[in-house]
């Protein structure tokens, strides 16, 4: 859908890469470029080793996640809890930069728990930038580490976009990217009047077409025409065939396309057919093509 937007992997812990199935976590398809490897960890040497892996595997960027609020990562000093330890974060980023020529970036929250004032955020950025890191992606919510689930932490703490704007004003030399609750390109364009970039998470997954199919033209100035939804699905089939030959179950691959026809006539039947039939052992390309029959070749008006 887009050639220019930067794709992030899910967060991968340093332990998973150093001690686990490295290929499982690092492999990707060439069509995914530009793609960033997002790491979780707090040991500078381990993060440096994983940053080298990112370069060896051809990633375009390596990112340190200091925003994930789950209990599992907290207990291992990973994610948002590191916002209480800015000097440790700076040390981690310094070692990562020393280990790779790739851009090393950070993603974090406005704060955590009671460390949620703008002054704390300012001190955090000021300390971390001493590492040499120049790109900060800021989720414009704080994280409440004790009492809220990861899902609730994506929805309940209020969004304070102005705090991200103020960081950009105070640190004009830094690349500041805003994240959190952004659901359209129009919203992204409004934010781009104040910051350097926009990260979109859930909406790009649940309803990808309006954002990703138009981003290249509207944000990046790419003159190529927008591809329609059905053509996007057809273009996906060679990749799907390859993954099935490698042993991947159909649904494990196509579940990421369930939002492609969101709001379109036949979209609900498309999702239902794949959800009900994609798990079967014999499910294959024919199952996917059967699902596509529910959606029209011609563009239909959105039902929403």
UniProtKB/TrEMBL annotation:
Binding-site positions, FMN: 38, 107, 139, 179-181, 201-202
Signal peptide: none
CDD domains: DUS_like_FMN (cd02801)
Keywords in alphabetical order: Flavoprotein, FMN, NADP, Nucleotide-binding, Oxidoreductase, RNA-binding, tRNA processing, tRNA-binding
Segments forming domain DUS-like FMN-binding: 2-287
Active site (UniProt): 68 (proton donor)
Pfam families: Dus (PF01207)
Class of this enzyme: oxidoreductase
Sites marked Interacts with tRNA: 65, 151, 154, 268, 271
Catalytic activity annotation: 5,6-dihydrouridine(20) in tRNA + NADP(+) = uridine(20) in tRNA + NADPH + H(+); 5,6-dihydrouridine(20) in tRNA + NAD(+) = uridine(20) in tRNA + NADH + H(+); 5,6-dihydrouridine(20a) in tRNA + NAD(+) = uridine(20a) in tRNA + NADH + H(+); 5,6-dihydrouridine(20a) in tRNA + NADP(+) = uridine(20a) in tRNA + NADPH + H(+)
Membrane-spanning residues: none
Cofactor(s) the protein requires to work: FMN
This enzyme's EC code(s): 1.3.1.91
InterPro entries reported for this sequence: Aldolase_TIM, DUS-like_FMN-bd, DUS_fam, DusA, tRNA_hU_synthase_CS
Molecular function in Gene Ontology: flavin adenine dinucleotide binding; FMN binding; tRNA binding; tRNA-dihydrouridine20 synthase activity; tRNA-dihydrouridine20a synthase activity
Family per similarity comment: Belongs to the Dus family. DusA subfamily. Belongs to the dus family.
Function of the molecule: Catalyzes the synthesis of 5,6-dihydrouridine (D), a modified base found in the D-loop of most tRNAs, via the reduction of the C5-C6 double bond in target uridines. Specifically modifies U20 and U20a in tRNAs.
Protein name according to UniProt: tRNA-dihydrouridine(20/20a) synthase
Species per Swiss-Prot/TrEMBL record: Marinobacterium lacunae
């Amino acid at each position: 859908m887009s050639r220019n937007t930067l794709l992030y992997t899910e967060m991968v812990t340093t332990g998973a890469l150093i001690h686990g199935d490295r290929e499982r976590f690092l492999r990707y398809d060439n069509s995914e470029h530009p793609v960033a490897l997002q790491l979780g960890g707090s040991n500078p040497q381990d993060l440096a080793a994983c940053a080298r892996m990112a370069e060896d595997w051809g990633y375009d960027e390596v990112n340190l996640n200091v925003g994930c609020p789950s209990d599992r990562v907290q207990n291992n000093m990973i994610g948002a809890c590191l916002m209480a330890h800015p000097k440790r974060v700076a040390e981690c980023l310094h070692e990562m930069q020393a280990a790779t020529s790739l851009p090393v970036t950070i993603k974090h929250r406005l704060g955590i728990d009671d460390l949620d004032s703008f002054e704390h955020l300012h001190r955090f950025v000021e300390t971390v930038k001493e590492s040499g890191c120049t790109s900060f992606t800021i989720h414009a919510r704080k994280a409440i580490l004790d009492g809220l689930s990861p899902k609730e932490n994506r929805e309940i703490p209020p969004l304070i976009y102005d705090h991200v704007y103020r960081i950009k004003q105070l640190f004009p030399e830094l690349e500041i990217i805003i994240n959190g609750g952004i659901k359209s390109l129009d919203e992204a364009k409004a934010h781009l009047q104040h910051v350097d970039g926009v990260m979109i998470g859930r909406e790009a997954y649940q309803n990808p077409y309006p954002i990703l199919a138009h981003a290249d033209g509207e944000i990046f100035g790419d003159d190529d025409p927008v591809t329609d939804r059905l053509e996007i699905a057809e273009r996906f089939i060679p990749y799907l065939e390859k993954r099935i030959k490698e042993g991947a179950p159909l649904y494990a691959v196509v579940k990421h396309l369930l939002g492609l026809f969101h709001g379109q006539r036949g979209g609900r039947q498309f999702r239902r057919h794949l959800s009900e039939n994609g798990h079967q052992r014999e499910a294959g390309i024919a199952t996917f093509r059967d699902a596509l029959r529910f959606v029209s070749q011609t563009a239909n008006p959105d039902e929403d």
